[in-house]
Amino acid sequence: MAPPLEHGAHISGTTRRSLLAGVAALGTLGAAGCSRVATASTEGGGELLDRLRATGVVRLGIAGEIPFGYIDKNGELTGEAPELARVVFKRLGVEKVQPVPTEFGSLIPGLNSQQFDVVAAGMYVTPERCEQVIFADPDYQMLDSFIVRKGNPKGLHNYQDVVEKKAKFATGTGYAEIQYAVEAGYKESDILIVPDQVAGLNAVEAGRVDVFAGTALTTREVVKKSAKAEATKAFTPTVGGKPHVDGGAFAFRRTETNLRDAFNVELRKLKKSGELFRILQPFGFTKAEMTDLTAKELCGG
């Protein structure tokens, strides 16, 4: 879901967001891909880490989403996830990262069909996704925020406000914010789905919608140069009647537990030393986005 969305580049959905109806169909493809991959992997945790060390290259699935993983104006791979990947995989003995751009909804199917080795796109950890891939522990946590007209004329601060004030609502393709709005009582068929946060900003500025929902990080980044729109204060959405905080993480094929576990060891070291924050800070992350959440918690057990 997740943002960053940045989220200035093409973004397709904080980072990260829960699998919804449209993405569920892709999930089926992912599950099938996972079955095929399983037959080709060794038992006992997989051998991918050894193969990556032998080749010296790890292929990263990215979704062109700022600030999570994207190609910048100079044609260079960057973003919070690729920069973190460079550090972690170098510590694991893999010197080079290679981007494999795809649509956000194609990340899990692409991973499970071996188009790349790991998803490095700030993807939110959700129970639905945990049935198809395994996640490292989250490297960040995220609340939601809205893009609204300057001054927030309708007073929209959460999804309940959107419903009660009959606001015209938009969010991004595959974003978890679709689910959050529906849980609050917004009719899904009335939601305007746009490609990313930049398109959402344009829709608000043009008056086509009253509000665009995204991650706190992506909304505050995308409105920085806007004369017509602003981002609301970050808030916690409600899921199942309880406050819900999302966490974004790297995803691996279910057979590759050795790689996931080794990644987690290095990630914990970076968290403890404070280096993780130093890596993510240039991409708009604050200390409020640092987290001790685990993948197990977010997977539902």
Please count the beta strands (DSSP E, at least 2 residues each). 15
CATH class type of the largest domain:
Alpha Beta
CATH topology-level fold name of the largest domain:
D-Maltodextrin-Binding Protein, domain 2
CATH architecture annotation of the largest domain: 3-Layer(aba) Sandwich
Share of β-strand residues:
15-25%
Sheet with the most strands, sense and barrel status:
6 strands, mixed
What's the name of the CATH homologous superfamily of the largest domain? Periplasmic binding protein-like II
Cα separation of the termini: 21 Å
Roughly how much helix do the residues carry, as a percent range? Answer: 25-40%
Overall mean pLDDT = 87
Strand-and-helix sequence, N→C? HHEEEHEHEHEEEHEHEHEHEEEEHHH
What is the number of independent domains? 2
**Radius of gyration using CA atoms only:** 18 Å
Question: What is the global morphology?
Answer: globular
* Helix-and-strand structural type: alpha/beta
